[in-house]
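Lab notebook, page 48
Experiment: co-folding of the full assembly
Goal: obtain a model of how the components sit together before planning crosslinking
Operator: M.T.
Materials (sequences as entered):
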Amino acid sequence: MKACGIIVEYNPFHNGHAYHIEKAREASKAEVIVAVMSGNFLQRGEPAIIDKWMRTAEALKNGADLVVELPFYWAVQSADYFARGGVKLLQALNCESLCFGTDSPSESDYQSFGEFTAANQQLIEQKYKEINQQHLSYSRQMTQVFQELYPSLHLDFSSPNHILGLSYAKENAQYEHPMSLLPIKRNVSKYNEEKIHQEFASATAVRNGAFKGQWGALKMVIPDQTLIDLTQKKLVSWEDYWPLLKYRLISSSYEELQQIYQMTEGIEYRLKEKALKAETFHQFIESVKTKRYTWTRLQRLAVYILTNISAEEIYQGWNNSYLNILGMTEKGQSYLKIQKKKSKLPILTKQMKNTEKYFKIGVKCDRIYQLGNNGIAEQNSGRFPIRIKNA
Amino acid sequence: MKACGIIVEYNPFHNGHAYHIEKAREASKAEVIVAVMSGNFLQRGEPAIIDKWMRTAEALKNGADLVVELPFYWAVQSADYFARGGVKLLQALNCESLCFGTDSPSESDYQSFGEFTAANQQLIEQKYKEINQQHLSYSRQMTQVFQELYPSLHLDFSSPNHILGLSYAKENAQYEHPMSLLPIKRNVSKYNEEKIHQEFASATAVRNGAFKGQWGALKMVIPDQTLIDLTQKKLVSWEDYWPLLKYRLISSSYEELQQIYQMTEGIEYRLKEKALKAETFHQFIESVKTKRYTWTRLQRLAVYILTNISAEEIYQGWNNSYLNILGMTEKGQSYLKIQKKKSKLPILTKQMKNTEKYFKIGVKCDRIYQLGNNGIAEQNSGRFPIRIKNA
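Observation: model returned without errors.
Model output:
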């Protein structure tokens, strides 16, 4: 049985995601599509609009065969760590290929970039250290590093998808048996585009539409299951957690805030000061933002503060990676049965006493996610993978 | 100029409090009544129904001449520490007498109890240690200690006011110049009585009436200023802080919770477990309560958790006591002028850079108090003592 891996967020699942799965199946000729999906907190430092279980059901009903949770400590990260976690889980599940959407697809470009980075790790790290002294965002630093080291490569670091693709390539190239890379042209509006048109819209546009209740327009760009989920549940946004974040910042000492992952360079002073005056999360981030501390970087830091995550917890997570199965089709289940004997990481389908060390961080973060909305169901204890029949 | 001290909470100010001030003036023959008043968190571990500034104005308009804040680290405490702080501040302001309400008044009883405790400190501490091994509440322990050591004394430890009176006597007897003790019979319904009748009602009854909007009945038992304050402001209760407390308990590790003042004997495990299931503060305390952990003790612990107060902060507070002036009449102001030269503690009338060490804990706790209700005004920065003319 051949499997093709994809690394996703589905916040929420829309037609562009269904198209991606379809293309992945075509390009890979795999029988099984394995989706590694962020849980309840997302790569760019946001709570998911609906919970991981609903997003899993949407994916399974629209082409995915197996949905595995990308744990918090990999998911809420800049592109490089997000890619490291995603590729690690797909490798552990022995996927033969990795299919990802991009705005500038060129299989050989990604391939050669991956090989270059695998061969020049020390050189790249060295360059990063040099660049790091300048006050630039991560993607600006990455642009500089590779413009100097590898000028022949086409680089578009203003596109988050292009950065992600390159990060996948870089991670994948480190493994003994790299997956074949299948970049596909994204058939959706640009990542951040906010309007809905025709059959496809970005997840950002879908979320905006959902918060505004534009169900007529949304119907055209999301599958039935997503429409049901969005209309029947309270939709979650950062504002739901703002009172808790503000409280945490006001009630914690500088010493306590310094224990938080990524709390560096004295940013805790600025955060505490601005939290006092801000009335909304939006106001807060707007008032803290600088060239160096971009919106996304601050949002991620805000998630770390909200979830009270220390650097030690993140490192512990990295050293205790596991496969948390959120759902599967019958085909996915057959594939999983084979992998249970072969996988290098533990495959978990429920929370148990003896697997506590794996679930610890996830359980904490999910409980905090639940505080944003009384209507969110228990996320871990007593939950089993969603199973659906293949169409 | 002679001053009589009283130690109060005014949550909120009612006719019984006005009666107490009137009797204090009569019994002491003092020109000035100095009220040491809890701030925004109260002795029994509750947020004040309205803020300390409003309660100060109520007191000044109804007989008090000087209102001084009893800082958090003295106020949110069992009777013995509450009394220690209150007596300390009144001593620093050179009050000649201390007048307090009680259900069983006997000047000589309090006097002799104070003298007995001052003379037998080591013996009492020794007895406490013996008793402490049994799983009893603080007042039950105190009953046992003194029934064994001082059986001739009339003791009614089921009355909070009687315990407080004895604690005042005990503290006062330690000073070189003890204040004369003026116990007066309380002319109000019993401490916890919930019904309103005639001219007097307990503060508990007033709060219940206010939450139910029983303004007709309340008018009879509270002065005009209190009625205005209660009807014009959102009333604060523990439920307003429950989402924050629940979040703090869920998001903190056991190690972090163990840093909280009074978090002993592994109670943090029980608190974290019960917080998950409770939907209200009331449900939460009800589910944690045991014989040893009474409602009041748990409420106080909940305030320490909410305000994230460590034992170190409390001890620092004790060692940096100060007089935070909340308000005064003209007479109060004249008295204060004299005390500025004589007082052993710093007298502060506004928050300044060089007095930060005094205000630190108070500012933190007040900011958290403000989170319970958007309508609460800034409590410290830029605030000056309330001044009113004598009638």
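Interpretation: The interface with chain A takes residues 243-244, 246-248, 250-253, 256, 276, 306-308, 364, 367-368, 371 of chain B (CB under 8 Å).
Next step: discuss with group before ordering constructs.
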